[in-house]
Amino acid sequence: MEEPWDFEFLSRIVDGFVSFLSEFVDDWLANDMRVSIFKILLSWLVVSLIAIHFAWRVYGNTVNDMYYRQGTGGQNGGTPDSAPLRSGWGSAAGDNLKTHRE
């Protein structure tokens, strides 16, 4: 049978976490350049994530509809099995059109 969790192990983890938090708070309250740069980068990250969240809420359906196109075709509304005939400068008279199956 396995040994139960040792309270000494859990207390070491909790003590380490508390000491890390207290050291982090002490550094956070200090006004040196390293902390200022960290605060700027952290605020930039938070603002960017919030902007991405709101942009996805506004334009998410549009992006989703662009990815999952409606119409004939394969899975997810992909391109049809046969390619449309090209006209004009895109094809010459003697070109052999190759498909993805060849």
Would you give an account of this structure?
One of its GO terms (cellular component) is membrane. Keywords: Membrane, Transmembrane, Transmembrane helix. This protein is mainly alpha-helical. It is built from 2 helices and no strands. The protein is flat.
Entry summary:
The chain is mostly helical and about 100 residues long.
List keywords for this structure.
102 residues, 57% helix, mainly alpha, single chain
Low-pLDDT regions: none
Q: How far apart are the first and last residues' alpha carbons, in Å? A: 62 Å
- CA-based shape: flat
Number of helices: 2
β-strand number: 0
**Major sheet attributes:** none
Compressed to H and E, one letter per element, the order equals HH
Mean pLDDT: 76
Pfam family, one: T_cell_tran_alt
Protein name: T-cell leukemia translocation-altered gene protein homolog
InterPro entries: TCTA (IPR016560)
Region (Disordered): 70-102
